[in-house]
Amino acid sequence: MKYLVIIGDGMADFPVEELGGKTPLMAANKPSMDFMARNGFRGNVLTIPAGFPSGSDVACMSIFGYDPAKYYTGRAPIEAYGMGVTMNGTDIAFRCNLVYLEVSLPKVVMADYSGGHITTEEAAELVRDLQGALGSDLFSFYPGVSYRHLMIWKNGKESMQTTPPHDILDKEVIDYLPKGEGASTLVKLMSDSQLFLKDHPVNKKRQERGLRPANSIWLWGQGKKPYFPPYMEKYGVKGAAVTAVDLIKGIGALAGFETPQVEGATGYLDTDYGAKARAALALLDRYDIVYVHVEAPDEASHNGSLKEKLKAIERIDKKILEYLLGNTGEDVRFLLTTDHATPLSMRTHYACPVPFVIYQKHGPQKHGSEKHGPQSNGSQKNADKGSGHSYQEDSGLLILNGEEMIARFLKG
């Protein structure tokens, strides 16, 4: 048996008035997802345990079958693994966003958590120069993808409170600066970065083109070096992950997965969905399980764009799921899910049970009932004629945690 996991980051949502009270998942044209839902096992998965931040780090750990309560040490150290950055036991890793702060004194507002969707090439130049200006024996800056970068603080502090910049869009940053032991060091680095980036040639050129400059760093998501037991040891299968973002590459690397670079994978709406699907199919020849992660729906929600979110969902359906369903046989089992909700109305992550479906060609058609567990809902023939089921949010289904979902998926 082979296994394919497709994660549409942030696909779940709240009902949208513009869609007549439907969610984007309910309204999107997604025949492949709906076909899987009609003919597979549907349920909900609670990816964010109580007391944990509602981010993709915690949620995707759950989807990979690792209990965050046992293995989570912070977001940034996971990304460090994805970037190939070596940490020792006393290093503290921080996520380092390039952001755009809108200054209208006395107010300083988080206007864009992504530095105007800065390109990877532009960002790499900025971060390399930041290393020259602010780097030292204690602080090292590492370029990542687009606005997502890394800072390592040797023998650093980790107990302070930090805030993801995508959680404070259009808010004054003064109330969300790092707090606690070591926080003043981070605030100084962020302030010094603003002075350095203000007149950087990359930002001057962006402004000349009418684009927002990446005029500050924002440090958050700190943590120590993590450890995961290998996926093969835990679940008995070897795997690979297809993704554009270092966070998922990091989870994959910690699990012992291959995490190749896929040309055209950007982490945005313009990502090459087809290239991801083709890469997954090729990897499936060599591995037992392949995860395919698509960031685009989450980015659309952070931008507050209903049009982009619908388009992202529909492209996942058409260019990834339709392709993979059409080019695999009965020996391949599919798991389709999302990591968390990213409601358009909130423009940030929200922890709640999210939908999943497990599908295998000619497999039994079942649906999970919250009260009664898995129940047969009739023959596949009847389901194909239109049971009314689709892949969407549904509070009446069985709720599993991530480890339970993966165990059920692998067991069949």
The radius of gyration computed from the alpha-carbon positions, rounded to a whole number of angstroms, is 21 Å
In percent, how much strand structure appears in the residues? Answer: 15-25%
Shape: globular
Q: Which CATH C-level class of the largest domain is it?
A: Alpha Beta
Look at the structure and give the mean pLDDT.
93
Strand order in space, largest sheet: 8-9-1-10-11-2-14
Number of domains: 2
Fraction of residues in helices? 25-40%
How many helices in DSSP terms? 15
At the third CATH level, what is the topology name of the largest domain? Alkaline Phosphatase, subunit A
| Main sheet characteristics | 7 strands, mixed
At the fourth CATH level, what is the homologous superfamily of the largest domain? Alkaline Phosphatase, subunit A
End-to-end Cα distance, whole Å, is 10 Å
- Tell me the number of strands: 14
Q: Stretches where pLDDT falls below 50 for ≥5 residues? A: 369-387
CATH architecture of the largest domain: 3-Layer(aba) Sandwich
- What structural class do the secondary elements suggest? alpha/beta
| SSE arrangement, N to C | EHHEHHHEEHEEHHEHEHHEHHEEEEHEH
Could you give a short description of this structure?
The protein is an alpha/beta fold. The protein contains 15 helices and 14 strands.
Describe the structure.
This protein is an alpha/beta fold and 412 residues long. It folds into two domains: 256 residues, Alkaline Phosphatase, subunit A (3-Layer(aba) Sandwich); 141 residues, no CATH class. 34% of the residues lie in helices and 21% in strands. It contains 15 helices and 14 strands. A seven-stranded mixed sheet has the order 8-9-1-10-11-2-14, sandwiched between helices. Strands 3, 4, 5, 6 and 7 form a five-stranded antiparallel sheet that branches. A hairpin with a 2-residue loop joins strand 5 and strand 6. The longest helix has 21 residues. It starts with a strand and ends with a helix.
